[in-house]
Amino acid sequence: MGGYNKEESLIAKNYDYKAPDVELTVEADNLEKRYGNFYAVKNNTFKIKKGEIFGLLGPNGAGKSTSFKMMCGLARPTSGTARIMGIDIKKQPEKARSNLGYMAQKFSLYGSLTVRENLDFFALAYGISILKKEEKVNEVIDVFGLKEYENAKAEELPLGLKQRLSMAAALIHNPPVLFLDEPTSGVDVLTRRDFWNHITSLAKKGVTIMVTTHFMDEAEYCDRISLFYKGETIAVGTPTELKQQAGANDMETAFINLIKESEK
Ligand SMILES: Nc1ncnc2c1ncn2[C@@H]1O[C@H](COP(=O)(O)OP(=O)(O)O)[C@@H](O)[C@H]1O
Ligand SMILES: [Mg+2]
After folding, report:
1. Which ligand is nearest to the CA of 104?
2. Please, which of 2, 25, 54, 234 could form a disulfide with 262 given CB 3.0 to 4.6 Å?
3. Model pTM?
4. 93-149: per-residue pLDDT in tens?
5. In what order do the strands lie in the sheet with 53-57?
6. 61 lines ligand 1 (CB under 6 A)
7. Which of the pair, 108 or 203, is modelled with greater confidence?
8. 56 lines ligand 1 (CB under 6 A)
9. Ligand 1 pocket, 28 CB below 6 A?
């Protein structure tokens, strides 16, 4: 899946994962977040299938991060809900959360802790038992090629490695669903390419990926895209479908045309 074809990434190759036997993995169901009279997210509904790369594409302030936070149980929806692997995030937040890994828009690493200490922290935060913690941390250090940096402080790592560490932290409990909020902003072109190679390889293994981006070329790597504008979904489809719908040859023009259409 995904439009990005390259050899399978090393990370995905070594990543030990067996996809569960379900079809729908992520569902947003009339999800809404209101601050006072302002709707940051309005009546948002979508469904994502196992192994799909689903992109949320939209300008700053469109409500992408707010949607992610609600779907992770970090912000309470004003109304509506989300389900992760069929589990309602409002009714069983902990159980739902144990099925997902979340890479926040701003790295949630602890700068003054080392790579290993950060992974220890996330292992416990994601509910891995003390007994299994060391084994799991060693495993992701290996899989993500972090061995030579394990004692370096997170704040001293170059951006590309910080990003890799964040991804390792989000996957430490082998979740079937991975949320990535602007994982490539501020990252150089080669690192971006590498990162997308990991994403598409993980999806091929059956990991479901929901990712936000404002890079139009990255939108093309998604299986399906939801165009997000002023808190609302204005169009959903494959990159090809969206371009057809908008009568455009490229994503950027498609996006502009679809926004204009929605404002009529
Ligand atoms: N805690 C908050 N209180 C009030 N408004 C907020 C809060 N959090 C986000 N917003 C507003 O909600 C809108 C959507 O924000 P966000 O979800 O971060 O957008 P995106 O991730 O697409 O850039 C923005 O207008 C933002 O200012
Ligand atoms: Mg955001």
Report:
1. 2
2. 234
3. 0.90
4. 989 998 999 998 877 889 999 999 999 999 998 888 899 999 999 989 988 889 999
5. 100-103, 177-181, 208-213, 53-57, 224-229, 232-237
6. yes
7. 203
8. no
9. no
Q: Is 37 a pocket residue for ligand 1 (Cβ < 6 Å)? A: no
* Residues whose CB is less than 8 angstroms from the CB of residue 141 and which lie 6 or more positions away in sequence, other chains included: 115, 116, 119, 147, 150, 168
Residue ranges covered by each domain of the chain: 10-18+53-74+98-263
Q: Which residue has the tokens 């045309």?
A: 257
Tokens for 230? Answer: 């002023």
Protein residue whose Cα sits closest to atom 26 of ligand 1: 61
| Distance separating alpha carbons of residues 99 and 106, to the nearest angstrom | 21
Pocket test for ligand 1, best of 31, 65, 215 (most atoms within 8 A of CB): 65
- Cα of 126 vs centre of ligand 2, distance in Å, is 23
